[in-house]
Design brief:
By secondary structure, the protein is an all-alpha fold. It is built from 5 helices and no strands.
Length: about 150
């Protein structure tokens, strides 16, 4: 659950840092406001499927490799399909999203940012294979090579 909070916090931080300069620097105040709305909407559209895939993938990391593959492929499909379907529905049925250019750009950038955040959180929090009983790499304590000196008591 903590990972989801980091995902939400990072996404909201991106929204503020990316969209507010557009609002301030826009020649047309309405276009600047639209940039903030488009960016916020895009982040929200991306957060729902990305949060679900983050939770699913976090669970799958503790499972068998087949489950991990299913989570990766299924999560990708869920995320892409969900974001595109919701974005297309908004674009078609809500005239405000066709009024100013840039909605699809914000959606693409937001998708990539949330994907990068999700992957970073997953990889940073994955379990250590050594702690779960995985194979240890050969080292001085477990492997006696040709050039390793032996003690006189062995």
């Amino acid at each position: 659950m903590r990972r989801v909070l980091f995902l939400v916090g990072g996404s909201l931080l991106f929204w503020l840092l990316a969209s507010l300069p557009f609002r301030i620097l826009a020649d047309d105040r309405d276009a600047g406001d639209a940039a903030v709305v488009y960016a916020g909407t895009a982040i929200l559209l991306c957060l729902l499927p990305t949060s679900l895939t983050l939770l699913w993938s976090s669970y799958a990391l503790k499972q068998a490799p087949e489950q991990q593959l299913t989570a990766v492929l299924g999560g990708t499909g869920l995320r892409v399909f969900g974001v595109l379907l919701m974005g297309f529905a908004l674009f078609q049925w809500v005239p405000y999203f066709r009024k100013y250019p840039g909605f699809w750009t914000w959606l693409l950038v937001s998708y990539l940012v949330t994907l990068a955040l999700e992957m970073t959180l997953l990889l940073a929090g994955r379990p250590d294979p050594m702690a779960s009983g995985g194979c240890e790499p050969p080292g001085p304590s477990t492997h006696r090579g040709v050039h390793t000196p032996r003690s006189p008591t062995e």
